[in-house]
Amino acid sequence: MRIGELCRRTGVNARQLRYYESQGLLDAERTPNGYREYDESAVIRVKQIRHLLAAGLSSEDIAYLLPCADGETPELVGCPELLTAMRSRLTRIDDQLDRLARSRDALSAFIAAAERTGAEHHPPFDGTEAVPA
């Protein structure tokens, strides 16, 4: 099938499909006139990629995981590449959550301090003053 049909069947635009191909996630044969031709398995492969991206995995992670993917959703067979990549991604997400929680706590403390000390010394903010970013 050509790229337009794959787009229709998966709901993914051609630009994304070409990106998946450039990342080694999707294979296409080239016809003599240069058109991409995908086999039937490309439909499932694109759906697998979309599900894995939705889980927060990078295209690099997905490249390791696809050999372990079975079915559209996909079900991931516990191969070593899969477990290593998923544990690594989970660690990165946990680190991001920790950083965000610390940032939130610090910002909350600044707001509380400003509310305690600044309210009696400054007129209320009416939204027209410039606020530094």
From TrEMBL:
Q: List, alphabetically, the InterPro entries matched.
A: DNA-bd_dom_put_sf, MerR-type_HTH_dom, MerR_fam
* Keyword annotations: DNA-binding
All copies of the HTH merR-type domain together span 1-68
* Pfam families per UniProt: MerR_1
PANTHER family cross-referenced by the UniProt entry? HTH MERR-TYPE DOMAIN-CONTAINING PROTEIN (PTHR30204:SF93), REDOX-CYCLING DRUG-SENSING TRANSCRIPTIONAL ACTIVATOR SOXR (PTHR30204)
Q: What is this protein called?
A: MerR family transcriptional regulator
What is the organism of origin for this protein? Answer: Actinokineospora soli
